[in-house]
Amino acid sequence: MSKQARPWVLGSAGIVFALILWWIFTHSATGNTMITAFAPENIPSAFAALFSRGVLLSDIGVSLWRLLAGLLIAGVIGIPLGLAIGFWRGVDQFSAPLVQFLRMVSPLSWAPIAVALFGVGSSPVIFLVAMAAVWPITLNTVSGVRALDRQHLQVAQTLGATPFETLRTVVVPSIKPYVLSGIRLALGIAWVIIVPAEMLGVSSGLGYEILNARDRLAYDEMLAVILVIGALGMVLDWVAQKVLR
């Protein structure tokens, strides 16, 4: 087996193994209709029901839009904040207690405040996504600034570079790997947060669809949406790796 094919073969074997365990679990609980509703053979009909109602693709689009909007806000806030903390010790000392406090608070803890401030709809969801994503971006930017070779800055200043030119030609290329790693980490965290966030009074999105399926006792549809969330998360992480490189 070639080195290129080995990861694909082993990954496929892992998926098959998980499917077998899934089938055994759902068929070993004889008489428990709730568990048997999660059986693998029910998933195709569940997907068919979701597509027939025309909700799945629209929910995916809404969730992805909220995710990207929250990430954009987190980047706009987190990168400048990370630059300021990394370059100026006074800013670091001034903001350290607040940053440490805020990043240790679960983003979902802000849910009641988000609903009170923004009402129901997409705005509180985007707010919670931004709250979850801003700290990985900020802290990775700080790490990039602190890893910067100060001699490069001195050379730029000696050559008469303006602050903007120094930022563009020295700082940004040097910290870019750190920032991109922070964005990828933030993407994973935000995708985990967006599902429970979409259970807060919204009428669209994958999180809402899970809640809706549960209320209708359509457990097979609920599991189908969970599978979509997991698959989309994998695709998003793969795309992030390719794009951020």
Automatic annotation (TrEMBL):
Keyword vocabulary terms for this entry:
Cell membrane, Membrane, Transmembrane, Transmembrane helix, Transport
**What InterPro entries does the annotation carry?**
MetI-like, MetI-like_sf
Localization recorded for this chain is: Cell membrane
Q: Which SUPFAM superfamilies match?
A: MetI-like
Where do the ABC transmembrane type-1 domain residues begin and end? 60-240
The UniProt entry's GO biological process terms, in alphabetical order, are: alkanesulfonate transmembrane transport; cellular response to sulfur starvation
Tell me which GO cellular component terms the UniProt record holds.
Answer: plasma membrane
Chief site of localization: membrane
Q: Which residues cross the membrane?
A: 7-25, 37-56, 68-88, 108-137, 183-202, 222-240
What's the protein's topology in the membrane? Multi-pass membrane protein
Q: Does the keyword Transmembrane helix apply?
A: yes
Write out the similarity annotation: Belongs to the binding-protein-dependent transport system permease family.
Q: What is this protein called?
A: ABC transporter permease
Source organism: Rothia aerolata
